[in-house]
Amino acid sequence: MLRFVRVGLQNGYGARRAACQFLACFAVLLALAAPAGAQELRLLMLGDSITAGYGLPNRDQALPVRLEAALRAQGRAVRVIDAGVSGDTTAGGRARLAWALAERPDAVIVALGGNDGLRGLDPRATAQNLQAILDGLAARRLPTLFTGMLAPPNLGADYGRDFTAAFAQAAAAHPDVLFYPFLLDGVAGDPALNQADRIHPNDRGVDELVRRMLPIVDSLLDRARPATAG
Description:
CATH superfamily of the largest domain: SGNH hydrolase
Radius of gyration: 24 Å
Pfam families: Lipase_GDSL_2 (PF13472)
Structural class: alpha/beta
Protein name: Arylesterase
Number of domains: 2
Strand order of the largest sheet: 2-1-3-4-5
InterPro entries: Ester_Hydrolysis_Enzymes, SGNH_hydro, SGNH_hydro_sf
Domain SGNH hydrolase-type esterase: 46-205
CATH class of the largest domain: Alpha Beta
Shape: globular
Strand content: 5-15%
Number of helices: 10
């Protein structure tokens, strides 16, 4: 193409005009070939220490960062916004929901509840908080992925059953929400994938979380549309 342009410039007006027409057509073809919907999506992850990357040596090992990298590797234009606060409960997440939504996300992952279980909080209160969070997101018509959590086994079978039911009930009340029953699926209880506290994933554990979650996060993003600027 460069040779064509040089020849045209040397052979007068007609050749220059032909070269310009060629370049114009080439530009149109490039525009038509560009992928549609390339505008960046904003995915908010509302969570606790697992989202915030507690205990990991480097910030780039945190779940939102690794998830964004995996999505971009698939060719998705997406930015994952870290709204994780270590130690946060469902009540805390409920209280700061409006603040987190000031980031104007196009879709949301709700990843709360682990600290409710660790503290032995009333599952009925957990259920109410989760319902309120999902209600708020539904009112804004934000595509949502809701992740469940399991209670520590030392709290007993009855508590564990009621705690798990809190997440299932909240999900059932919001049929449009994508439900991932256990955030730590495939990682919890495996010493090789957890830090010394056996609660928080290490870098390998985070990678396993991303690998397992990626298909349902893809489904979430398929529902999202970039917000209109301004």
